[in-house]
Amino acid sequence: MTAAWNALAASPVWWLALTVLVYAGTLALYRRSGAHPALIPVLTSVLVLLGLLLASGTPYADYARGTQPLTLLIGPATVLLAVPLFHQWPRVRAIWRPLAIALLLGSATAIVSAVGIAWALGGSWETLASLAPKSATMPIAMPVAERMGGLTSLAAVAVAITGIAGTMVSQPLLRWLGADQDPVVRGVALGLTAHAIGMARELQLNPVAGAFAALAMGLNGILTSLLVPLLLAFL
Predict the structure, then answer these.
(1) Residues 42 and 151 in one domain
(2) Are 193 and 115 found together in one domain?
(3) In the listed set 38, 72, 106, which residue is the last one of a domain according to the structure?
(4) For residue 204, with 0-12 CB atoms within 10 Å meaning exposed, 13-18 middle and 19 or more buried, which class applies?
(5) I need a labelling partner for 155 at 20 to 30 A (CA). Which of 23, 135, 138, 195 fits?
């Protein structure tokens, strides 16, 4: 029995199929809960798969190799984000000035707050550089952190935690601020602070919010890559 399980666990097809099934199950649970922020699939599916990897003793390298086809889909999926954004282009043109100001202030605040808290707690330069780009999407945050002398592994963890936490607290926080009914405000806020995870949730709830979340995520990634070296130069 053990030998059969080990052979199954080592199969790339097994982990690919299991990942899809786990995500489908957690997505169904998320929808049945009324889109409860604590049950976002990116969190629950990761916890389930992590438990399965630990229980089976499967190295992450084997899992990553088995799910490589899903990784290859990230590029096309990212390009397709331009479709909902294209439909909102007239609205983007109408509000580009306040949108630009919000993105600039939000991006700078995300960097300064992370670095400031880490510095106040005695964090090393590696820690500061790793946490600075935490609100950018992972493909941007990791090389930015590495270029500034940070650890890509720590940057990846910081990005994941930021996205999950931002998505979970966004709904009650925006409701408290009275801004939860405006899809543009909600989308920009989630895309700016919770990057791809927040954007994915908004795309499920409202196409307008999802489009602006995609825009905010992309522009914040560009701003983060420009602002991190400038702001860290003052330390």
Answers:
(1) no
(2) yes
(3) 72
(4) middle
(5) 23
Three-class secondary structure assignment of 168-212 = HHHHHHHHHHCCCCCHHHHHHHHHHHHHHHHHHHHHHHCHHHHHH
C-alpha 53/C-alpha 51 separation (Å) is 5
> How many domains does the chain divide into?
2
Residue 199 near residue 213 (C-beta atoms within 8 A)? yes
Q: Are residues 68 and 88 in the same domain?
A: no
Assess whether 85 and 36 both reside in one domain. Answer: no
In this structure, how many other beta carbons lie within 10 angstroms of the beta carbon of residue 13? Answer: 10
Whether residues 64 and 102 share a domain: the answer is no
Can you tell me the distance from the alpha carbon of 55 to that of 65, in angstroms, rounded to the nearest whole number? 19
CA-wise closest residue to 158 among 189, 130, 119? 130
Q: What is the pTM of this model?
A: 0.79
What are the pLDDT digits (tens) for 48-58? Answer: 988 988 888 88
Strands (DSSP E) along the chain, which ranges? Answer: none
**Same domain membership, residue 152 and residue 216:** yes
Both tokens of 22, joined, read: 């786990």
What is the span of the domain harbouring residue 227? 80-232
Q: Which residue has the tokens 């979970």?
A: 168
The DSSP 8-state label assigned to residue 206 in this structure reads: -
For 22-81, the pLDDT digits (tens) are 999 998 998 888 877 778 888 888 889 889 888 888 887 788 888 888 777 766 777 777
User: Which among 196, 191, 220 has a CA at the least distance from the CA of 107?
Assistant: 220
Of 70, 224, 210, nearest to 137 (Cα)?
A: 224
- For residue 134, count other CB atoms closer than 10 A to its CB: 29
